[in-house]
Fold this protein.
Amino acid sequence: MSAGASALAAPSERRQPGRRLATRLRELAFTRSRRRALTSYVVFIAVWQLGATSQQWLGHALPVLSALPPPTAVLTTWGHLVLDSGYWHSWLASLVRVAGGFAAAVVVGVPFGLTMAMSRGFRGLAFPVFELLRPVPPLAWVPAAIIFWPTQELSIDFVIFLGAFYTIVLNVLGGAETMDPRLVQVARSMGASRWNIFRRLVFRAVLPSILVGMDVSIGITWEVVVAAEMISGGGASGSSSGGGLGFFIWSSYVGGSYPQIVVGMISIGLAGYLSSAALRRLANRFLPWLEARS
Amino acid sequence: MTPSLEPSPRGAIRIDGAVKSYGHGVARTLAVDDCSFDVNAGEICVVVGPSGCGKTTLLGAIAGFQSLDGGSIRLDGRMLCGPGRPRAEVGSDRIVVFQDGALLPWKTNLDNVAFGPTVQGTLSRAAARDKARGMLADAGLGGYEDVYPGQTSSGVRRRIEIVRALMNDPAVLLLDEPYRALDALTKSVMHESLLELYLRTRVTIFFITHDLEEAVFLGRRVVVMTARPCRPKAILDVDIPYPRTYDIVGERRYRELVQEAAAAVHEEARRAFDVGDKEGPQ
């Protein structure tokens, strides 16, 4: 428990020397919402630690909780892994896959959605097939993808692409549908051409929805990459390095290193959180009119 | 746009025998039937009538957003729509300002006002901005240039929208209940500022409203429409000289005219109500 609490407080102590430290600490401890957040972390970690070590202090293993490695063991393992290049290679491998599949989904999905939004005819042709394929979960594609893509890497990228693609397209369509038609009328009456209306109105009006779609779908890509790596065995050679975080968890399970499983889980949570946060930061730069309103 | 003291000779609208219906078969409703009247160049012509009587259809036909089934509409002698051309071409000589406002939320107020000349390519971006800045300042709206519409009060937004319309140097402004959503206090300020703009530019204004006091306060003439199908029931000549200030609402002549309009509208509203007419397709 003390390990968890000090780990949380430590970074701010190091960053802010002198008088600022007191203010920072007061902020950290005395804002009501901060206090609640801190309490929630501490209680969570304490329950975990106590539950995981119940055999030692209670003389009796509690169900479920005692099967977990305690946070102290996880931290120790993590401390070792941080120095291991294989661990960072797993990060890199998953990151590259997510980035590739996600970028492809944006590059294909946004124009596809916009074309459907602009053209009734194209929508009539494309949407039924889209709706037919959409309920098939991306993971159900894994075996098929492995068969029809030449490399395993491409098949994982493809599955990730699917995970993000549907969400992005649906958001683009939804954004275009909620667009105020009077904006188009006004622009037309002021002499805007079709291209101008697309570029200056439809695209701008749909942009927030595109960014929301990206935000949601990057979360999905992390779910998908982990499962895809577990199923397909990750790297081409099946060695633990280059296999990605999903494979890292899987091989930790097979190898019986339970603290390492938890490290892998936390790492993926962190990766998803960081990519979402980065995307949102980017989004705010493109949407100054929305940020200004709040 | 330089303020001209000469009344603008542009913006005369002649609506002649306009007909418009919606739906087919038994569901067919006649929104406008054999409707004829003139809007004189350089005047504020206010159209009032019961809900769903087809006023907005008429405005849409002038703007080119809607087609007519029959009759014709001319602007300064030029046929906008009529036999062989059911729908007028949309053009920057007729700019619509909508009920709830339609500023582009992702553009600053300044860029909204500069939008027309920029997309038409008649002015460079910088020149359009300069002109927009000048027009906003003339309208007493300096200081709102660099914020977004979402950060601006609805009253100011509506005024900015009218400036944006004027940027295009239109022959006629088509205002479709622009102040409907505003509270009474804001409305009175809006009215004075619209009149002030009008007196400076003498642009022809076609103004639709439900509010009879608003109609008489603003209008040179008030056209009272019948319940659906829409055609003029009475045309009131508002013989109160401009410039008008809010003091006139206490005057006898003003009250008489509002009363007169109210009597005509009430009869129609009653009729519409008895028929069980609902708000139809816009």
Q: What stands out?
A: The interface with chain B takes residues 180, 182-183, 185-193, 196, 200-201, 204-205, 207, 287-290, 292-293 of chain A (CB under 8 Å). Chain A is about 80% helix and 0% strand.
